[in-house]
Amino acid sequence: MSGSVYKLRCPHCHHGLRVRNSVAQHPLLRSIYMQCTNVACGATFRGQMEITHAMSPSGCPTPDIQLPIADAEIRRQAIERENSKQVDIDDIFDSQEAQGGQA
Ligand SMILES: [Zn+2]
């Protein structure tokens, strides 16, 4: 697949958005650049992806990274999403590296 289509939708035409590039702003924050997959639309966007909680602790923690532990509601939502089989975010950045993009 050439670029991944995440579950983000174009706010204009509601077709899928393809992540074209991403830039690290901070260890917990990336800016992402997206393009609508509808050739008749062609809109492009910038957004952000942020790590907000730890679902389980790291086996090799970094002292500078302090995150709240996910509560029961966040865990319940994660289980529901896992069952719905969304595209894994690692697939997005893996495909960008293969294309020579910044990831
Ligand atoms: Zn669009």
How is the topology of this model organized?
Layout: E1 5-9, E2 16-26, E3 29-36, E4 44-50, H1 72-84, H2 89-98
Antiparallel strand pairs: 1-2, 2-3, 3-4
Region (Disordered): 80-103
Pfam families: Ogr_Delta (PF04606)
Domain Zinc finger Ogr/Delta-type: 9-54
How would you concisely characterize the structure shown here?
With 103 residues, this protein is of the alpha+beta class. The chain has helices spanning 72-84, 89-98, and strands at residues 5-9, 16-26, 29-36, 44-50.
Order of helices and strands: EEEEHH
Which geometry do the CA atoms define?
flat
Spatial order of the strands forming the largest sheet: 1-2-3-4
Record field, number of beta strands: 4
Distance between the termini: 17 Å
Radius of gyration: 15 Å
Largest sheet: 4 strands, antiparallel
User: Quick check: average pLDDT?
Assistant: 83
Helix share of residues?
Answer: 10-25%
Count of discrete alpha- or pi-helical segments spanning 4 or more residues: 2
Based on helices, strands and strand pairing, what is the structural class? alpha+beta
> What is the domain total for the residues?
1
Approximately how much beta-strand content do the residues carry?
25-35%
Low-confidence spans: pLDDT under 50, at least 5 residues? none
Bound ligands, named by name, code or SMILES:
zinc ion
Protein name: Ogr/Delta-like zinc finger family protein
Pfam families: Ogr_Delta (PF04606)
InterPro entries: Znf_Ogr/Delta (IPR007684)
